[in-house]
């Protein structure tokens, strides 16, 4: 089912993001995680797409399996990295033929070790180019795009970044999923500014349960997000005293409160960046469901 149709109900929801393992020998454990999280009744589950298309086939196959074997609505990522009409058709054709109706269109990140994105095709330089192609060639597909509450690291200003987001929506995107953030006020200000320039599609906040301090620093460095100083200091002390276990516990509690607060204050739902970790997401999902009375069959 199209995600824009699911969103039309207006009911608060949780959605999840998964990272397909490159090594197929790890797939049984990956699908164990998927199976463990299905009791959360996620509205949809996004499946990432490796740099340079390195896991393109995995994304396609896993997306189809989520739909057909687990009854989960997949949102498959698609990037401009290595994109061509032939390659996009090779991905989107089988996707549609197998009943997958949702794609997250992204420009993609620079290769590891490089600071700037260099498009390989004049035709597909921006996420908006992907959106226009999909709308034209696969009109039955629902398209989501990414939003940056603290602006994209390469944007010169927040105003410029919002204009680019508006271009993606005007090209045919039906909803926005945000990059991670840790201060909910930043998200709500971002939504207000987007609405002020005419972006009227649902804007879904992305929440990361912090699992590991070095990994957190790496993620913050490439996505441009900030973290409240007091939370960072607490995480640092927890890491020094208790290692990763202390960081996970603190990060879990913070994400629980953050997700519940977002929904209570009117966010349409919460998109959890799972890092393929079932336990943390189950705890967050159960907390939010109990707090707001969510759950039950969709």
In short:
The chain is built from 11 helices and 8 strands.
Describe this structure in words.
The protein has one domain (3-210, 247-292): Alpha-Beta Barrel (TIM Barrel). Helix content is 48%, strand content 14%. The chain has eleven helices and eight strands. An eight-stranded parallel beta barrel has the order 1-2-3-4-5-6-7-8, surrounded by four helices.
Quickly list its features:
single chain; 48% helix; 298 residues; alpha/beta; 14% strand; eight-stranded parallel β-barrel; TIM Barrel
Which helices and strands occur, and which strands form pairs?
Blueprint: H1 3-7, E1 13-18, H2 27-37, E2 45-47, H3 56-70, E3 74-79, H4 85-97, E4 102-106, H5 127-137, E5 142-147, H6 158-171, E6 175-180, H7 184-196, E7 203-207, H8 213-223, H9 229-242, H10 244-264, E8 269-273, H11 278-292
Parallel strand pairs: 1-2, 1-8, 2-3, 3-4, 4-5, 5-6, 6-7, 7-8
| H/I helix tally | 11
Structural class: alpha/beta
Gross geometry = globular
CATH architecture level-2 label: Alpha-Beta Barrel
Strand order of the largest sheet: 1-2-3-4-5-6-7-8
Order of helices and strands: HEHEHEHEHEHEHEHHHEH
Sheet bearing the most strands, described? 8 strands, parallel, barrel
């Amino acid at each position: 089912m199209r995600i824009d149709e699911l969103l039309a109900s207006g009911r608060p929801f949780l959605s999840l993001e998964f990272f397909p393992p490159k090594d197929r020998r790890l797939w049984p454990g990956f699908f164990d995680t998927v199976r463990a999280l299905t009791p959360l009744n996620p509205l949809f589950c996004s499946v990432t797409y490796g740099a340079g298309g390195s896991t393109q086939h995995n994304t396609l196959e896993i997306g189809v399996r989520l739909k057909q074997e687990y009854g989960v609505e997949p949102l498959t990522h698609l990037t401009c990295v290595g994109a061509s009409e032939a390659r996009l058709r090779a991905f989107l054709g089988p996707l549609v033929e197998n009943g997958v109706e949702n794609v997250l269109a992204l420009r993609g990140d620079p290769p590891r070790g490089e600071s700037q994105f260099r498009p390989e095709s004049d035709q597909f330089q921006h996420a908006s180019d992907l959106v226009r192609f999909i709308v034209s060639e696969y009109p039955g597909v629902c398209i989501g795009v990414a939003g940056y509450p603290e602006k994209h690291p390469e944007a010169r200003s927040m105003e410029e970044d919002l204009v680019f987001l508006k271009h993606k929506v005007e090209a045919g995107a039906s909803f926005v999923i945000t990059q991670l953030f840790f201060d909910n006020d930043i998200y709500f200000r971002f939504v207000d500014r987007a609405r002020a320039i005419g972006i009227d599609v649902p804007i879904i906040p992305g929440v990361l349960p912090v699992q590991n301090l070095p990994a957190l620093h790496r993620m913050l460095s490439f996505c441009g997000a900030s973290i409240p100083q007091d939370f960072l200091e607490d995480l640092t002390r927890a890491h020094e005293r208790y290692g990763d276990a202390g960081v996970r516990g603190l990060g879990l509690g913070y994400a629980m409160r953050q997700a519940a607060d977002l929904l209570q204050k009117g966010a349409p739902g919460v998109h959890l960046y799972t890092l393929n970790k079932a336990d943390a997401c189950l705890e967050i999902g159960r907390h939010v469901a109990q707090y707001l009375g969510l759950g039950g069959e969709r």
